[in-house]
Design goal:
Elements (H helix, E strand, L loop, with lengths): L1 H16 L3 H31 L4 H33 L11
Helix pairs in contact: 1-2, 1-3, 2-3
Length: 99
Amino acid sequence: MAGMTQTMLRDAVDGFVHNTPSLCGEVLQHDDGVDELNRTIIRHLADRIRHDPEGLEAALELMRISRNLERSADHATIIAEEVVFMADGRVVKHGADRK
């Protein structure tokens, strides 16, 4: 998840700097994957908390990390959406025109 988010951020910034909407299109395609990973991690950690209450603190910290990575990926997506709009005049926010 961290690697995907890092790649998304790098590609969004590179797409902005070099005005490359095709690079930003890849960022948009990965957003759902990071969202799903976040949901999977949260479910897994919630299950671990139920079975091992001693690990509550560590699990909560990992949940916060997962949520922050997902939020960073969302920011990369917003940058990518803006680059596509600036370069092509296409609105791709909220999944419009992604398919």
